[in-house]
Amino acid sequence: MTRKRLLTKSKYLNGLQCPKYLWVKLNESDRIPRFDESMLYRFNQGHLVGEFAKKLFPDGINIPADDFKINLKQTEELLKERKPLFEAGIMVDNTFSRIDILKPVGKDEWNIIEVKSSTKIKNVNFHDISFQKYCCEKYGLKIRNCFLMTVNNEYVMQSDVDPASLLTMTKIKDEGDGSTNGIEQRVESMFSTIASEKCPAVTIGKQCNRPYECPLKIECWSFLPENSIFDMYGSKKDAFELFEKGIYSFKDIPDDFPLSGKQEIQRSCEISGKPHIGKEPIRQFLNRLEYPLYYLDFETFSGAIPLFDGTRPYQQIPFQFSLHVVDEDNAATRHYSFLADGKGDPRAEFVATLKRVLGNSGSIVVYNQSFEKSVLKALAEMFPEYSDWVESLNDRIIDLLAPFKSFHYYDTRQKGSASIKNVLPVLTGTSYDHLDISDGMNASLAFLGVISNSASAEEIIKIRNDLEKYCKLDTEGMIWIVDKLKELTKAGTDDKDKEKQKD
Fold first, then answer.
1. Bridge-partner residues for 151, per DSSP?
2. Is there a contact between 112 and 146 (Cβ–Cβ < 8 Å)?
């Protein structure tokens, strides 16, 4: 078969996930949504880790990757010098791969080193490196070993980042992972897919989310009803089982199909069109609240490369908090906030400010307590003088996520989620849609723009204003949710209070 199109490493991985995705990417790429900010951030983290990896090979030669033809030409010339090569481009028979690090070993052999910004090796990484090896060997290079270089999440920065300690290298064995078996056939199959005049018809399945959520998922899943079985709480195994039987909606799930307690609530709500309200367990939750109430939310950032002494890769660094205080029932609220200036490590000022405004008694209401508690624990480890105080907070923390995670309250509009982003609009009619910063990831990325000096003075003013609005809504929203729960449980009992569902 004549190969008219180029099969790159990234497209090979696309094809492994889904032949439809591969075809669309090469033939109708305008159907694929643009990368969002979080994806661009991950790409940037990969680039940063790659630059640190190069420092481990001081005699290495960097080959420009922007110009395809120049990259190929320089690679061909530099292979003769027998030095470590960065971003070497290998093309043969219309297959192309760029190698992060190609390291000479022995007289005429090479090692392939693939650099990842992740802390764990994933199955897709084996296929990634096997394609590189396939291209190199077809080109005529002798490959001795392949390695994956990942980030060591146990590394703690002291003064400067040490690349040798930050990164760890794992030898990849040919046997066992199956990535090399049948690669020739897979490559040929992908060239056939690329050359086809028609887009392959592919039924939705687990490949839509593995190893990553496919950019075409929204398009491919658009035929499903508003509240489909894929909004089912828990494992999606049951959802796919129902889908294969032609059942798409909760309303159509047979009575004899085994459902968990939470899934049964979802089904019941979809059929009735009414929310599930377990009044008694909600009352029990509300009775745990002790005034004054401190509604608290943190915002953090993280990165593959530690920025401050005593921090690890991907450690959550708090830079902002919002605190609403309610002294008694129906009392006016007081609001306190902290937002770092972005000019250094914010943690010392963050914890000192928080201690000043967080009283010594009363419930501290958060949404998803594991996050706030983990941040507080890390602060106590870094600043031992606060350890007793942080310990004293644990018994005061109340997780507002609990009644929603337990499905004591559930509305079909939540789509199986207990996230505050889903709960707040349903209960109060207020959403985050009107905000320029509307979720934690965007908040983190915005603040990173401040500390990296990539934003102008005018942009920084807007970013800080947007961050204040976003974080304030998180804590203000929790007050509204609690008030709504009180309202819902004021009168009478509910036949749904007999919920003792088992999951």
1. 167
2. yes
> Long-range contact list for 60-66, CB < 8 A, 24+ apart?
60/84, 60/85, 60/86, 60/101, 61/85, 61/86, 62/86, 62/87, 63/87, 63/88, 63/89, 65/89, 65/98
Counted residue by residue, the chain has a size of 503
* pTM, to two decimals: 0.92
Per-residue pLDDT of 430-455, as tens digits, reads 999 999 999 999 999 999 989 988 78
Whether the CB-CB separation of 85 and 74 falls below 8 Å is answered with no
Q: Tokens for 471? A: 């974080």
3-class SS string, 36-53: CHHHHHHHHHHHHHHHHH
For residues 290, 291, 292, 293, the Cα torsion angle rounded to the nearest 10 degrees is 60
Instruction: Please give the CATH topology (third level) of the domain spanning 280-498.
Output: Nucleotidyltransferase; domain 5 (3.30.420)
| Alpha helix segments (H runs only) across 347-490 | 347-357, 369-382, 387-393, 402-405, 420-428, 440-451, 457-488
Please tell me the distance from the alpha carbon of residue 88 to that of residue 66, in angstroms, as a whole number. 12
- Asked, colleague to colleague, whether 7-195 and 280-498 share their fold, the answer is no
- pLDDT value at position 179? 80
Q: Which CATH class is domain 7-195?
A: alpha beta
Closest CA to 307 of 183, 166, 469, 108: 166
